[in-house]
């Protein structure tokens, strides 16, 4: 199955996401292995330190005491507390010096150490013993949490990068939209002016053309002027003015009906009579373009046969325009995708119609448009939300 441009982009994003996940997983796995090895090494160091303590305390030891003291002094990272047979604290190392003289702190620390690691007992005289309590070093604890901190920084960087690139891409798309639209309007301007002159010539000249033909040519020329005006407004701040919804809907539907197969029925729900006085601030040419694009999209979805019904409803300072067709329907996972530039299910299409509709409604009219509901094989309902005056 051949993928369209938008689906290819989604696939690339998915591959990059999986790749990022694998990097994070490998980082955690490697760091955890390193932490486990350091834990084993620290336990071995503590046992070496314990044996040195036992030998120093033994009256029978005749070896090198300096070497044993060096072993004891070499522990500069692992917190330890040494107690005698009665449980009295005889010495400690590598604890917070601020609380070193606080007995409550030391006793609490012993309980924490007992919970983390099994204490080491050293018997050195008959009936006498030392007990060594210890915990993981500060370095080991930091290393244990480092991969999560690292992943957090990477995640933050990815989020910031994503939004930065998205903003940059959106800005670039806006410039392309505006540039193409204004260039199209500019290119249409010259032939339209020429056609106007020719129509005036036909009206005033002596010719055998029926008046109906000239009237239809004038009508189509007016249509071209309207299209040029629409394109010229893309990328500019459109002027919004209050209009009657029923009026603008009737105009757009009449235009589409006259240029659509008789097998397609476009109608306005009867309840719209209650909205004769409902007005909203819109740009008339652009809003009519939205209605026409939605109708054309519905006609394509119905393969040129079916019905399209418009209906209105009110909300809190809002009016809702629903457009229901009897087309093929849209899968729920495509409700948002269909508004993306480049997404299309047609063999011949740019995938810009619904994207343009969304841009006009949301960017220029501060409204919303979305798929209200859809059933495969039965039809789709689009909803437009606009603020009332």
Task: Please give a handful of descriptors for the protein shown.
Heat Shock Protein 90; 4-stranded antiparallel beta sheet; 5-stranded mixed beta sheet; 389 residues; rod-shaped; 18% strand; alpha+beta
Strand content: 15-25%
What class would the helix/strand composition place it in?
alpha+beta
Overall number of domains: 3
Please write the CATH class name of the largest domain: Alpha Beta
The Rg value, from CA coordinates, equals 39 Å
Q: State the helix count.
A: 8
CATH architectural grouping of the largest domain: 2-Layer Sandwich
Shape: rod-shaped
List the helices and strands and how they pair.
Elements lengths: L4 H53 L7 H9 L6 E4 L5 E5 L9 H14 L3 E6 L2 E7 L3 H67 L6 H23 L7 E4 H14 L5 E5 L10 E4 L1 H18 L4 E10 L2 E8 L27 H12 L3 E8 L3 E9 L2
Parallel strand pairs: 6-8
Antiparallel strand pairs: 1-2, 1-4, 3-4, 5-7, 8-9, 9-11, 10-11
Write a structural description.
The protein has helices spanning 5-57, 65-73, 103-116, 138-204, 211-233, 245-258, 284-301, 353-364; strands at residues 80-83, 89-93, 120-125, 128-134, 241-244, 264-268, 279-282, 306-315, 318-325, 368-375, 379-387. The protein folds into three domains: 5-136, no CATH class; 141-222; 239-387, Heat Shock Protein 90, CATH 3.30.565. Helix 1 (5-57) packs antiparallel against helix 2 (65-73). The model has no long low-confidence stretch (mean pLDDT 77). With 389 residues, it is an alpha+beta fold. The strands form three sheets. Strands 6-8-9-11-10 form a five-stranded mixed β-sheet. Strands 2-1-4-3 form a four-stranded antiparallel β-sheet. The chain has a two-stranded antiparallel sheet with strand order 5-7. The chain is rod-shaped. The protein has eight helices and eleven strands. The protein is 54% helix and 18% strand. A hairpin with a 5-residue loop joins strand 1 and strand 2. The longest helix is centred in the middle third of the chain and has 67 residues, at 138-204.
